[in-house]
Design brief:
Elements: E1 7-16, H1 20-31, E2 36-39, E3 56-59, H2 62-72, H3 79-100, E4 106-109, E5 126-132, H4 150-164, E6 168-170, E7 175-181, E8 184-192, E9 195-207, H5 216-222, E10 229-230, H6 239-246, E11 251-252, E12 257-263, E13 272-274, E14 289-291, H7 306-309, E15 329-334, H8 335-338, E16 344-345, H9 362-366, E17 371-373, H10 376-383, H11 387-403, E18 424-436, E19 439-440, E20 447-449, E21 455-461, H12 477-495, E22 507-508
Helix pairs in contact: 1-4, 1-12, 2-3, 3-12
The structure holds flavin-adenine dinucleotide (FAD).
The site of flavin-adenine dinucleotide has 41 residues, from helix 1, strand 18 and helix 12.
C-alpha cells in the first residue's frame, strides 16, 4: 500500500488504549509539551485498571527493591530495567499524591499482610499504597467491582487529570495497524466514526492496549494449561501485540500470567475469581480443599500470593493418563464451610456479565453451580471417583486440620477448615487469569525492541502490554508499572522531534 494518506486526525503523540497506562502516558506526554490523542476500543475508558483491587506497590529504597526484583524476575530482564523500575517504585508515592490533588483523594499506606511478598533479600523495602477518601464517588456505572472501589478510585485520579488537561479520548475507536515510513512509526490505522481512518502521530505511538486476556488463540499458543478463563475487560484481546509484531517487535513473557483458579459455568458468559485475593492471610480460615480428577489433593490451595501462582499446579499435563487431570479440579467443602462466606468474587466491565454472588452461597447451590451431596460417597460416585480415595483424602485433611501439623503442600494451619459435616459440596475450578504479562519487549525507555534488540523508532509499549514481570509477580506491581512505564514513555515520546513525511510517501506495513 503506497501513497500519501488523508490523515483524519493528527497529534504529536497517539496513545492506544485508555486504561491506566494509556492515561499516565497521555498526562506525561501532554505535560512535556505534546498534543495527545487517546484512542480507546471500548465505549468507556478504564480497561482492567478500573477493576483492580487497588493495591499499588512502592519501595522505601532503591537497592532493596533492586535486590528483591532481581530474585523474582527469573533472569529474564536486564539489570538496567530492574534498576529503572526500582527507582520508579521509590518515586511513585510522591508522584501519585501529586496527581491525587486533582480531586482530593488520599493515597495511604495499605494495611495488609506481608505474605504476598516472597522472602527474598530486599523484601522489607516494599510496601503497598491504596487510594481512599474520595467523597461522593460511588463508582463508574460501567464497572462492577462489588464493594471494593479502590481500583476505581485509583483510575478516577488518572481520568480526572486527563479531563483537567482537556486531552481527547476517542472511545469506540479501536486501532488496528501501525503505519511505518522508512522504518519509523508515523501513525496508525483505526476504526473511527465507523470507518477505517489514518491517524498521524508526529512524534510517536504509545501502545497501551493491555493484555490478551480475551484472545483465545494467543492463550492456547503460549500457555501450557488450557483452557485458561479470564475476568476483566473483553476489549483486551492483545491487539497491541499483533500491531507490534507486524512492525517487527520481539515478544517476551508471553507464558506469564497473573492467575489463580476460579469458576466458569456453561450458562453464564464470564468467569468468576475465588474470593480470597491479594496477599494471603494465614489466619483467615478458607472452607475448601482442591482435588484432581481422581479425588486427590495436589496443591496448597492458598499460595502466598494466590492470584499470582495458584493457577500453575492446575496446568500440569499427566502423560501417564494421558490428560490434564487437574483441569478442571474441584473445590470440596462442607456445610459449616459453606457458611464461612462466599466462595467467589465476581467483577466485570461488561453490563451483561454482572453477577452478585450470595454471601452464604445458597443462591449458587440453587442454580446448580455448586453441587450438594448428602454424603462423601454420593459426591465421589457422582464424579466417577473411588469412594475410598475421596475418604482417604478427606480423612488425611481432617487429621492435619486437627493436629495443626505440617501439610505436605504447606498450607498454613490458620487457613484450614475441616470437612466433616454434611451435606458436602463440590464445584469445578479452572485456571483463571486476572491479567497477562506478555507482549512486545521494551527497554528502560519503554521503546519497543525488534527481534535483534534494536528499538523500533517512535514506538513505545506500556502497562501490562509487554509487562516487566517475568517470573514471579509483585502484588500491586501492575498498577505501579502502569505509572512507572507511562511516565517514562510519555516523556520520551514527547522529547522526539516530529517525523517528516518522505518524498516517496508513507506506506502501511504490509
Ligand atoms: C480483578 C483484577 C484485580 C487486579 N488488582 C490489581 C491490584 O490490586 N494491583 C495491581 O497492581 N494490579 C492489579 N490488577 C492488574 C492491573 O489492574 C492491570 O495489569 C493494569 O491495570 C493494566 O493496565 P493497562 O493500562 O496496561 O491495561 P488496561 O487497563 O486493560 O487498559 C488497556 C485499554 O486498551 C484498550 N484497548 C485494547 N485494544 C485496543 C485497541 N485495538 N485500540 C484501542 N484501545 C484498545 C482496552 O479496551 C483497555 O481500555 C488487577 C487486575 C484485575 C483484572
Amino acid at each position: 500500500m503506497t501513497g500519501r494518506f488523508d490523515w483524519y486526525l493528527t497529534a504529536d503523540v497517539v496513545v492506544v488504549g485508555a486504561g491506566g497506562a494509556g492515561l499516565v502516558s497521555a498526562i506525561n506526554a501532554y505535560d512535556a509539551g505534546s498534543s495527545v490523542l487517546v484512542l480507546e476500543k471500548m465505549s468507556n475508558p478504564g480497561g482492567i485498571t478500573i477493576l483492580a483491587g487497588g493495591g499499588v506497590k512502592a519501595a522505601r529504597d532503591v537497592e532493596g527493591a533492586v535486590s528483591y526484583l532481581t530474585h523474582t524476575q527469573g533472569g529474564r530482564v536486564s539489570e538496567q530495567l530492574i534498576r529503572t523500575f526500582a527507582e520508579g517504585l521509590v518515586e511513585l508515592p510522591d508522584y501519585l499524591r501529586g496527581l491525587a490533588e486533582v480531586n482530593g483523594a488520599t493515597v495511604t499506606e495499605r494495611n495488609e499482610t506481608h505474605e504476598g511478598i516472597y522472602p527474598f533479600p530486599g523484601a522489607e523495602s516494599l510496601y503497598s499504597l491504596t487510594v481512599t477518601d474520595l467523597d461522593d464517588f460511588d463508582g463508574y456505572h460501567w464497572a462492577y467491582t462489588g464493594k471494593n472501589l479502590a481500583g476505581q478510585r485509583f483510575f478516577k485520579i488518572l481520568l480526572d487529570n486527563v479531563r483537567k488537561r482537556d486531552i481527547e479520548i476517542r472511545t469506540d475507536s479501536p486501532a488496528s495497524e501501525l503505519i511505518i515510513d522508512n522504518g519509523e512509526v508515523v501513525g496508525l490505522w483505526a476504526l473511527i466514526d465507523g470507518e477505517k481512518r489514518a491517524v498521524r502521530a508526529n512524534r510517536g505511538v504509545i501502545l497501551a492496549s493491555g493484555g490478551f486476556e480475551f484472545n483465545e488463540k494467543l492463550k492456547k499458543e503460549f500457555f501450557e494449561a488450557t483452557p485458561v478463563y479470564a475476568v476483566g475487560n473483553p476489549g483486551n484481546t492483545g491487539d497491541g501485540i499483533l500491531m507490534a509484531q507486524k512492525a517487527g517487535a520481539a515478544l517476551w513473557h508471553m507464558w506469564h500470567f497473573h492467575g489463580s483458579y476460579g469458576f466458569k459455568f456453561d450458562d453464564f458468559d464470564t468467569a468468576f475469581r475465588i474470593a480470597p485475593g491479594g496477599a494471603r492471610n494465614s489466619n483467615r480460615p478458607v472452607s475448601w480443599i482442591v482435588v484432581d480428577s481422581s479425588g486427590k489433593r495436589f496443591m496448597n490451595e492458598l499460595h502466598p500470593a494466590t492470584q499470582d501462582t495458584a493457577a500453575r499446579p492446575l496446568g500440569v499435563y499427566d502423560p501417564d493418563v494421558p490428560a490434564y487431570t487437574r483441569i478442571p479440579a474441584y473445590l470440596i467443602f462442607d456445610e459449616e464451610g459453606r457458611k464461612i462466606g462466599r466462595i467467589a468474587n465476581p467483577l466485570t466491565t461488561h453490563p451483561d456479565h454482572r453477577y452478585v454472588w450470595s454471601e452464604d452461597n445458597l443462591a449458587e447451590i440453587e442454580r446448580g453451580w455448586i453441587k450438594r451431596f448428602d454424603s462423601l460417597e454420593e459426591l465421589a460416585t457422582a464424579h466417577g471417583w473411588s469412594v475410598e480415595t475421596l475418604h482417604e483424602t478427606v480423612e488425611n485433611w481432617n487429621r492435619i486440620v486437627r493436629s495443626g501439623g505440617e501439610d505436605e503442600f504447606h498450607r498454613p494451619a490458620g487457613t484450614r477448615v475441616s470437612i466433616d459435616t454434611g451435606p458436602f459440596y463440590a464445584v469445578p475450578v479452572w485456571p483463571l487469569l486476572t491479567n497477562t504479562q506478555g507482549g512486545p519487549e521494551h527497554d528502560e525507555k519503554q521503546r519497543v525492541l525488534d527481534a535483534f534488540g534494536a528499538p523500533i523508532p517512535r514506538l513505545f509499549a506500556v502497562g501490562e502490554l509487554g509487562s516487566f514481570f517475568a517470573h514471579l509477580y509483585l502484588l500491586g506491581g501492575n498498577l505501579s508499572e502502569l505509572i512507572i512505564s507511562g511516565r517514562i514513555a510519555g516523556h520520551e515520546a514527547a522529547q522526539l522531534k516530529s517525523s517528516a513525511e518522505t518524498a516517496r510517501g508513507l506506506h502501511a506495513v504490509a
